[in-house]
Automatic annotation (TrEMBL), chains A, B:
This is SnoaL-like domain-containing protein. InterPro entries: NTF2-like_dom_sf, SnoaL-like. It holds the Pfam family SnoaL_2. It comes from Dactylosporangium matsuzakiense. Residues 14-105 form the SnoaL-like domain.
Length: 126, 126
């Protein structure tokens, strides 16, 4: 399959495999220094901020399953489900632009509600 | 582009075009009677329940823009942004399975938080 895969999908899947394998250093090697990510809570700019955004999630990750992955030479979409200690099923979609082998833009979509609920439970407020 | 498109992507885009054009009757013509949709608030089963789920959103829709759309013969992903009176930008991803020209399964991903906040504002609770 790999040989038929567009360049953007190859990078998106390599990135996905790295972070879901908890190898954030390797994951970040696929992310451009000036990456822009539009996430549910707002825009994240730059690799350092992006890593900060991902790190706590990677730390609590129990597992991830790819639901769908498609792409061409420049853009790719990976849809997956995640399991964390906090949230048994937290599906997400990442729609990325890849330039020169690095993710330069990501539209990151997931529902924040179950994660908020888990935080509220953890803090004893509900 | 259409001729090179997999069957599932053709149906997913026809469905998308119909509901974002507020033609829910036409949209539902691409949805199987026994459709199953895993949405943020839980599983929706059957075309009638699915239509009930979509109708209020379609009613308040101001516009939608496709961010990415990919697929093959059996599965497709459409990532898009929506604008509604309540929420200026509400991006979503739908990862669908298509059988015999109808969507039989949909994994629907979007962030419920901005919609909840809009409801709270509307009800005057914040």
């Amino acid at each position: 399959m790999t040989e038929q895969m567009g360049a953007a999908l190859r990078i998106a899947l390599a990135y996905h495999e790295a972070w879901t394998g908890k190898d954030l250093d390797r994951a970040m090697s696929y992310v451009a220094g000036d990456v822009v990510c539009d996430a549910p809570a707002g825009r994240i700019e730059g690799a350092a901020a992006y890593r900060e955004f991902m790190a706590p999630f990677v730390q609590m990750l129990l597992g991830a399953t790819v639901i769908a992955a498609f792409g061409d030479e420049r853009t790719a979409v990976v849809v997956y489900d995640t399991a964390t200690v906090a949230v048994a099923s937290g599906p997400a979609a990442e729609s990325v632009t890849v330039e020169d082998g690095k993710i330069t833009y990501s539209r990151f979509i997931f529902d924040r509600v179950p994660f908020q609920q888990a935080r509220e439970r953890a803090s004893g407020s509900v």
